[in-house]
Amino acid sequence: MTIQELENWFKNVELPATPIMLLPGTTITDVDKFLESHFIPLRANPNALSSKPIWDRLFAFKLLIESNL
User: Rounded CA gap, 16 and 48, in Å?
Assistant: First the structure.
């Protein structure tokens, strides 16, 4: 999945109310800021080693949303 496809997916799905426990120790309190803060560095350098945890959190969030649809 590309960055653009993932961004489009999040734009076209109903986002859950906050707070959201994403992973142990990771709580999303503002979904828009969470997505923005994750997509900005991905757009800048998607293949950087530091981008792996960002991809992981975005896919975990996507999976959480899909499991509740």
Answer: 29
What pTM was computed for the model?
0.90
Q: Look up residue 21 and give its DSSP letter.
A: E
pLDDT at 8 over 70: yes
Let me know: does 28 contact 22? Beta carbons within 8 Å. yes
Q: How far is 17 from 1, CA to CA, in rounded Å?
A: 25
Helical H runs in the chain? 3-11, 31-44, 52-67
Would you kindly state where each structural domain of the chain is located, as residue ranges? Answer: 3-67
Token pair of 23 as six digits: 């992973």
